[in-house]
Specification:
- The chain is an all-alpha fold and 121 residues long.
- The chain is built from four helices and no strands.
- α1 runs antiparallel to α2.
- The longest helix is centred in the first third of the chain and has 37 residues.
- The relative contact order is 0.14.
- This is Zinc finger DksA/TraR C4-type domain-containing protein.
- It comes from candidate division WOR-3 bacterium JGI_Cruoil_03_44_89.
Length: 121
C-alpha cells in the first residue's frame, strides 16, 4: 500500500474513532438521563409494568450497542497500531494485502475477503 493510501485510511480510522466516541458519550448520557428520570418519579401511582419493561429493554439495548461500539473502537485502535508497525492492510491469516474496497467499508478489517469467508463457515 502506498503512502497516500495509508494517509487516507489513517484519516478514515480517526474519523470513525471520533464518531464512535461521540456515540458512546450519547449512549452514556441517555442511560444516565433514563436512570435519573426513573429514580425521580414522585408519582403517587405505581409505575405500570409495561413502562418498566420498556425501560429495561431500552437499557439492555443501550448496553448492547455500547458493547458493540467499544469492540469496534478496540479494532480501530489495533488497526492504528498496525499502521505504526507498517502492517496495516495485511490479512492476519494469509498475509496477503486486504482489498482496498474492503478497507473502504471496514477500515479496521483484519482479514481479506477470502479468509473472512472461511472464518464464517
Amino acid at each position: 500500500m502506498n503512502k497516500k493510501d495509508l494517509e487516507y485510511f489513517e484519516k478514515l480510522l480517526f474519523e470513525r474513532r471520533k464518531q464512535i466516541l461521540e456515540q458512546l458519550k450519547n449512549i452514556e448520557k441517555r442511560m444516565r438521563t433514563s436512570q435519573q428520570d426513573s429514580s425521580s418519579d414522585l408519582s403517587l401511582y405505581p409505575t405500570h409494568e409495561a413502562d418498566i419493561a420498556t425501560d429495561a429493554e431500552s437499557r439492555e439495548e443501550n448496553v448492547f450497542i455500547a458493547g458493540n461500539r467499544a469492540d469496534i473502537l478496540g479494532r480501530i485502535d489495533r488497526a492504528l497500531k498496525k499502521m505504526s508497525k507498517k502492517m496495516y492492510g495485511i490479512c492476519e491469516n494469509c498475509g496477503k494485502e486486504i482489498e482496498k474496497e474492503r478497507l473502504e467499508c471496514i477500515p479496521y478489517a483484519r482479514f481479506c475477503v477470502g479468509c473472512e469467508r472461511e472464518r464464517e463457515r
